Each structure stands twice: as C-alpha cells, then as structure tokens.
Amino acid sequence: MSYPAHRPVDATRPLEGRTILMSGGSRGIGLAIAIRAARDGANIALLAKTDTPHPKLEGTIHTAAEWIREAGGRALPIVGDVRDDDAIAHAVLATVGEFGGIDAVVNNASVIDLSGTEALSPKKYDLMQDVNVRGTFMLSRAAIPVLRESPNPHILSLAPPLNVTPRWLGAHPGYSLAKFGMTMATLGIAAELAGDGIAANTLWPRTLIATAAVQNVIGGDRLMARSRTPEIYADAAHLVLSRPASERSGQTLIVEDVLAEAGVTDLSGYAAVPGTPDEELYPDVFLD
User: Fold this and answer.
1) pLDDT, averaged across the chain
2) What share of the chain is helix, strand, coil (3-state, %, to 5)?
3) Is pTM beyond 0.85 here?
4) Under 8 Å CB-to-CB from 134, ≥6 apart: which residues?
C-alpha cells in the first residue's frame, strides 16, 4: 500500500477517496450506508453472497454496485460468504488490490430469527452465530493489518448496546446472543487496539428501520409503516466514519444521538410513511 503522509479532507465530502469494506450490502441498511458514502466519492467493496436474484428479496451485489457507481462512488462487488475464511481473506486482498488500502470495515451482514429457545433450530442458531458474531470478528481481524496503514481507520458494527436484561435476553435468546456477540466482538477489538489508533464502535437505532427483515420477519406492512427509512442509519454511519478515529472508540452509539450531536434534531423526513409522528414510530429491540 502507498498511502500519502496526508490526504486533505473536504469537509463537504469527508469520505472522498476513502475505502470501505462491508459485509453484505446488497440491499437495505448496508446499501443505504454504501450509497451515502458513495455520494462523497468513496470506494466501496461489498462481500456478499447475492450473486443472483433472490425470489423474495430485491437486489444483488451487482445491482448494489450499480447504485454505488450512480451515486458517485467506485464499487467492487466480491461474491463470497462472510462465514468462509478464504472468502474473507480474498475480500481484503481484492479490496487492497483495487483501491490501495482499507479505511473502514462495516460489519453489516446479519441473520435474524426471533424464535424462542425451543422453536429455534440448531441450524439457524449456528447460522446467526456464524454470520453475526464470527463474521464480525473474522472480517475485522483480517482487515486490522491494513487498517493500521489508514490515516483514519474505523470498524463499525451494526449492533446494539449490551442491554442484558431479562426483557431482552428472554425475548429471543438465540438472536440476542448473536447480536450481543457482535457488540462484544467490536468492543473487545476496540479495547485491544486502543493503542493502534483504530476506532471500533457499534451503531443501533431507536426505532425500527424499514427493511426486508421488518417486512418478512418482524411485523409486515403494519410495522413497516411505523418505521424509519434506512437513510437515517446511513446518515449516522456517515457521521461516525467521518470523525477522526482518535475521538471515539469502544462505544455503543445510537443513531438518533449521533445525529443530534451533529445538530440534526428534526427526524420527520426519515419516516417511512411521510407525516408519521415520532411518537407513533415503533421502538427497535434491545433499547428500553
């Protein structure tokens, strides 16, 4: 790699020329984060399995790459599974080969199953652990040597605060373990790398976000109408990744708090159904 000693940052396009390696990102929140960064002129490498269209889900890694390029960024679609160590290693090498380095890892890939303990199949339990926890740990791990060379290195995981109360542990233990595992992996890396200048944080919303998971798993049209759009998550992620890594690490950040810090307090434009009052939006899980 050959990072220059200093790359001036355009305050209006803070991610210009920066490189993000993301797990997933073919649709939903991950794609929104990628497109927001692309509007700055960022480079986005996506590691995802969606090489061909899914019968029930819109978008592939290739259509995501097209959206990124249309937004003004450079895209590198990498077909692979975050559960596969060889795929992770290839993704890191391919990203460095294409863009010259990695400035941020976004652990977006996640599996959700809200089944209770007896109803949750061993296969689905293992899948959530492998994608959510192991995938977060291994992708971050593989990128660390490259991140050390970045002038502003970040790891950002889309995971909740550690609210390990009976309410949330008991609601869906399998899923709670998987999401809290993502958070613990990120916080552990933050503590371990505190002297390396690599920021590692998590980010989570106060309300549901209108995604396929909400539509197909959580609540269908009724809760989709009481959600916010993925763009609120994308704008908050953009703010986190734009900040100097030295300013904040090892924190479990909340989307709305990050926006409020930046002076964004009117969130009405993010409602999935325009005009929906904030008090009618449905709270996301893990936050009291």
Assistant:
1) 94
2) 45, 15, 40
3) yes
4) 83
In one-letter notation, the amino acid at residue 102 is: I
For residue 219, give both structure tokens: 């609540």
Judge contact between 183 and 202, C-beta under 8 A: yes
The answer to whether the CB of 158 falls within 8 A of the CB of 132 is: no
Fold designation for 19-280: Rossmann fold (3.40.50)
Catalytic residue, candidates 175, 233, 270, 282: 175
Domain spans, the chain: 19-280
DSSP 257-276: HHHHHTT----GGGBSSTT-
Single-letter residue type at 32: A
Written as six digits, the tokens of 14 are 């803070």
Write phi, then psi, for 284 (nearest 5 degrees): -80, 170
- Is 175 part of the annotated catalytic residue set? yes
Q: How far apart are CA 195 and CA 213, in angstroms?
A: 37
- Residue 52: the pLDDT is 82
- Pairwise CA distance, residues 267 & 278, whole Å: 8
